[in-house]
Amino acid sequence: MKVCIMGLGYIGFPTACLLAKAGHQVLGVDVNPALVERLRRGELHIVNEDGLADLAREVLRNGSLRVSLTPAEADAFILAVPTPFQHFSQGTIREQIERPETEYRADLSAVAAVTRSIAPFVRPGNLVILESTVPPGTTENVVLGTLVEAGVDVSGVFFAHAPERVLPGNMLHELVHNDRIVGGLTPEAAEAAAALYRTFVKGEILLTDATTAELVKLMENTFRDVNIALANEFARVCEHLGVDVWEAIELANRHPRVNFLRPGPGVGGHCIAVDPCFVVEKAPGLTPLIQAARRVNRRMPLHVVELLSQLAADRPITRVAILGASYKANVGDDRESPALEVAGLLVEEGMEVRIHDPYIERYNGPVERVLDGAEAVLLLTDHNVYRSLDPERVGQLVANRLLLDTRGLLDAARWREAGFQVLRLGDGRTRIPAREVVGD
Ligand code: SAJ
Fold first, then answer.
1. How much is the pLDDT for 88?
2. Is the CB of 260 under 6 A from ligand 1?
């Protein structure tokens, strides 16, 4: 088939590569000229995804995937564009954190824009699939609705929603092996979309209607958000009760039907921190639990700042070294990262913040440069590489041996041996004796 993929981001690009590899003639379209140029040169914008670089090089080189700024006629159109919040970044970080869940609205302008841009090319018999995560009803109201407004004869066009469910860091494997939900505006549309996915998906393909598929995607990420909120709430309870949450969770998870997730500095990324609000948007009066969970997770960066001031005790801290900017371990993606929210809150308090992250170009200089002269070290992302940091060496670089580990990653005993005061999020057993801080 001729497939036109609108949006070459984290989902659109790997999907385009897999479709090309499966034998389709794929045109990848993005509005970002710099990205299209980069891809034409064979340079990738997504890092740390096993196998993607080789696959991309192969399909770009043999021409089965071409990239362009504008769409063209095709048998199938796949829309994979971002659906962020409207005006997500307005106000100070503290103001954003305090904003009620009910005020967030999905920004569907990119979905509408790419739909308008394919309108001149859509013909009866074509397949139009929305992959972006959206509030229920969007495939019908926005995608079909926009084409109707543009004067397209949609009577013979098949519309479907096929939400992506891949875990960043393991994308290619999951795109192929995960089960896939395909919801059609009609059963024929679901079947037509499923036939396309069957050409590269090895997981099971499950058919339903479009609105169910839209909601299922939101339910999955809401499930995770609520469960992380529960872990975060217990982290704070443990701090209050003098218990170590990391040990408590490990013990609780020995129950055959209990599986706590991990507490941390907050929930980031473009999915889990966003999607529950798409449910709230559609049913504000029916979602008290979802809203409470969001609030718990959203407020975690404020708690981290509070922990830092506990760790600093009566020492004035002005220079902080942050380890990790990505929203989660071992990926190079800082979208809606709690690490950057913490950094921003500290900057709003007048601190000098230096950030290190091995996977993000802006922050991947030598870690020593960030640690040098720091008055506290704050671990915010659990990248594996940080496990091998040598506490002795770090101790020689910093101005104060203060460490706040918000991910339960580092071996606290080793860091304490090297003279560090260590505070771990959720560890109520850690007591910080104010005057015993070891400086250099
Ligand atoms: N996090 C915790 N504790 C945990 C697990 C995660 O604090 O125990 C934090 C992470 O550090 C991160 C955030 O939550 O900041 C989200 O990370 P994640 O690994 O849970 O999820 P994402 O956003 O990378 O990917 C999710 C996945 N959804 C589910 O697992 C239900 C993925 O399958 C979806 O495809 C993706 O969202 C998406 O695109 O919607």
1. 57
2. no
Pick the atom of ligand 1 nearest to 297's CA: 7
User: How many CA atoms lie less than 13 Å away from 259 in the CB half-sphere?
Assistant: 4
Mutate to test the pocket of ligand 1, among 267, 296, 333 (most ligand atoms within 8 A of CB): 267
- Expressed in angstroms, the distance from the first to the final Cα of the chain is 66
What's the sign of the alpha-carbon dihedral 54, 56, 60, 63?
positive
CA 373 to CA 319: how far, in whole Å?
8
Q: Which residues contact 53 (CB under 8 A, 6 or more apart)?
A: 44
Select which of 4, 17, 217, 238 is catalytic.
Answer: 217
3-state class (DSSP) for residue 423: strand
Q: Which atom of ligand 1 is nearest to the CA of 262?
A: 8
- Predicted model pTM: 0.93
CA 403 from chain center: how many Å? 26
Q: Which residue has the tokens 């914008």?
A: 45
* Ligand 1 touching residue 262 (CB < 6 A): yes
Which among 13, 211, 1 is positioned nearest to 126, based on CA atoms? Answer: 1
- Ranges of residues in the chain with a pLDDT under 50 are 434-440
Residue 311 makes CB contacts below 8 A (sequence gap 6+) with: 376, 402, 403, 404, 421, 423, 432
* Atom 1 (ligand 1) nearest CA: 267
Number of neighbours of residue 390 by Cβ within 10 angstroms: 10
At 107, the amino acid letter reads D
Please give the pLDDT value at position 322.
98
Residues composing the chain: 440
pLDDT one-digit tens code per residue, 155-207 = 999 999 999 989 888 999 999 999 999 999 999 999 999 999 999 999 999 99
**For ligand 1, is residue 342 a contact (CB within 6 Å)?**
no
Q: Is 271 a catalytic residue?
A: yes
The pLDDT, as a whole number, for residue 432 is 59
Residue 163 beta carbon below 6 angstroms from any ligand 1 atom: no
Work out which ligand 1 atom sits closest to the CA atom of 174: 33
4 labelled catalytic:
no
**Burial tier of 8 (Cβ tally within 10 Å: 0-12, 13-18, 19+):** buried
